[in-house]
Amino acid sequence: MTITRSAAKKNQEQASAPPAESARSGAKHKTGEGAESPSPKRRKADKMKQTKIEDTVAGQEDAQKTEEKRSESKKEHKDETSAVEPQGRGESETPPSSILEKGIIYFFFRGRVNVDEPSEVNEIARSYIILRPIEKDAKLGSGAIGDAGNSRVCAIPKKTLPQSGRDRWTGFVEKAGASFQQLKDEFLASSDYQTKTAGERHTPAATPAGEGVYAITSTGRESHLAYILTLPEKLGELQREIGLKEKGSFIITTKNPEHPGPANARLPKAPEYPKEFFEEFRSLRWVPTQPKHLDYVNTQFLLVGESSGVEKALAQQTEDEKEGKAEPAEEMEKLEEEDMQRMKDLREDDSERIFADLQVDAGNYPKLKTTF
Fold first, then answer.
1. Which portions of the sequence form the region Disordered (predicted)?
2. Which of 23, 96, 189, 368 is a Cys-bridge partner for 19, taking CB atoms 3.0 to 4.6 Å apart?
3. Is the peptide bond before 232 cis (omega within 30 degrees of 0)?
């Protein structure tokens, strides 16, 4: 077949024409020989993006597992005879938004090694605060508080509690999500141990110093731990010397574990916070305490004394006042009255009342005293 000059020219132009745009674009994504591979920068960006996604998913899974464990613990230790009446306040008594958490508070101290009954403050090794949270809309009825498996033991490595703004004590969560059985076995009881140099040593049982109601409140830039004592009915020399008041409060802040403190103030292990906590901490060393922080063992917090009492901690916030919500001070007073009544009906003396509330036999532990 004879090929014309025009046809030959057309075939030549098609053979020498550049590839289509789509073909050129597609060549970038080929991995075969001669194809352009992704640049190192792009590979690094893709890897970082994938890592970020995996970290986010892992953080969410950790938070979910922690919450599931906490829920299971609460179910396991739920006490049907509890004095706590959820939603007992009713719709007409909306809890103030500034109260982040409320509940029952117990103050204990432990004597120095081999000192079962301290006769002065200097014979105290450290103080403790036990928090037993209840629902924000709950009221207290009769009977023992009941074991919800959500108690916390907060250790204060000082002999006394902070009194004024000059007193700034660092404490930590020793136990979180604890049952009353755990408190009995691992906190309240005494223990003996052997040392190579001094032989047998004795750690005394924990001694009660007081019981009452508490609230963790937010006043905007600060969080406070406010309390009102129910027991003893009248403060004694012992309570005053260790820093307890009829109504007291501390500014409380949580330490960011990514900023380690001095070597003598570090704990062997950091709290196992979910990723979301670190996002909230940002680069800050300390943040106003949220109740959820105290649900993790080894959370470190700073207590700063407030000489003004509970006035600042229980001040009503402007928004709550506009919405007609209850005043924090009013809610605490109601809780105090309810707690006082139930504790009076629980047992004959203060020591028996406190230990009965914690479901242990008072006869096995030191009594609550008002004098050394």
1. 1-97, 313-348
2. 23
3. yes
pLDDT(23) > 50: no
The CA-atom distances, in angstroms, between 194 and each of 2, 116, 185, 234 are 112, 17, 19, 40
Pair 352, 365: CB distance under 8 Å: no
The answer for residues whose C-beta is within 8 angstroms of residue 26's C-beta and 6 or more apart is none
Q: What is the pLDDT of residue 93?
A: 82
Using CA atoms, how far residue 37 sits from 21, 40, 321, 369, in Å, is 18, 9, 64, 79
Give the pair of three-digit tokens for residue 97.
Answer: 């938004």
Half-sphere exposure of residue 137: CA atoms within 13 angstroms, side-chain side? 10
Alpha helices, DSSP H, located in the chain: 5-16, 21-27, 40-77, 180-183, 237-241, 275-281, 318-322, 328-346, 350-357
Task: Indicate whether 257 pLDDT > 80.
Answer: yes
Whole-number Å distance between alpha carbons of 217 and 102: 9
Contact between 114 and 201 under an 8 Å Cβ cutoff? The reply is: yes
Q: Which pTM does this prediction carry?
A: 0.80
Strand, coil or helix: what is 49?
helix
Q: What is the DSSP letter of 326?
A: P
Three-state SS for 258-292 is: CCCCCHHHCCCCCCCCCHHHHHHHCCCCEEECCHH
**Tokens, residue 343:** 């504790």
Q: Could you read off the pLDDT of 200-237 as tens digits, one per residue?
A: 899 999 999 999 999 999 998 999 999 999 999 999 99
**Mean pLDDT confidence for 86-104:** 90
Containing 35, the helix (H) or strand (E) segment is none
Q: Is the pLDDT of residue 153 over 50?
A: yes
Distance in Å from the first CA to the final CA of the chain? 124
Q: The tokens 């613990």 sit on which residue? A: 73
CA distances from 292 to 138, 150, 333 (A): 19, 11, 24
How far, in Å, CA of 223 to CA of 142, rounded?
30
Q: Check: CB of residue 82 under 8 Å from CB of residue 146.
A: yes
What confidence tier does 81 reach under pLDDT thresholds 50, 70, 90? confident
Structure tokens of 211?
């019981």
Cβ atoms within 10 A of the Cβ of 102, count? 25
Helix (H) or strand (E) holding 240: helix 237-241
**Token pair 């704990």 is at which residue?**
267
- Please choose, from the candidates 100, 77, 50, the residue with its C-alpha nearest in 3D space to the C-alpha of residue 216: 100
